[in-house]
Amino acid sequence: MLSDDLTLREKIIEVLKNTETPLTVDDIIALLELRHSDRRLVYDAILHAAKSLNRKSHGRLEIVMVPPYCMKCGYLFKDLRKPRKPSKCPRCKSERIAPPRFIVREKT
Questions:
Q1: CATH number at residue 20
Q2: What is the pLDDT of residue 1?
Q3: Does 14 reside within a domain?
Q4: In the chain, where does DSSP find H-type helix?
Q5: Which helix or strand (DSSP H or E) is residue 97 part of?
């Protein structure tokens, strides 16, 4: 269990460091016992946690995002400026989008 003294960003970093497989924002929300309505807050926290982790680890660690993709046509959303789940596919207009997943890895 994570300490209550940690900030949301620190908790997210710890959860992502201690997982074997990349996690979605919904997975992180469930593990941290947050409200589903905190989804946007968690996406923003991941963005800032990535910067903090890079700085604190002196560039050795990074939060890697497995980009979202369309489950109908396979379109890969690799040019996102911010981590988020797109609402629909620009190619086929499907709304069946797999959410992005995140994990902490050592930079190679």
A1: 1.10.10.10
A2: 55
A3: yes
A4: 8-17, 25-32, 39-56
A5: strand 97-98
> In which domain, by residue range, is 13 found?
8-67+100-106
Question: Which pLDDT tens digit goes with each residue over 47-79?
Answer: 999 999 999 999 999 999 999 999 999 999 998
- Per DSSP, the three-state class of 38 is helix
**Residue 98 and residue 51 in contact, taking contact as beta carbons nearer than 8 Å:** no
Residue partners of 36: CB distance under 8 A and separation at least 6: 26, 29
Amino acid found at 49? A
Number of structural domains in the chain: 1
- pTM score, whole prediction: 0.89
Residue 35's identity, in one-letter code, is: R
- Dist CA 107 CA 70 (whole Å): 28
Q: Would you say residue 17 lies in a domain?
A: yes
Q: Is residue 32 part of a domain?
A: yes
Domain for residue 2, yes or no? no
Q: What is the band of 31 on the pLDDT scale with cuts at 50, 70, 90?
A: very high
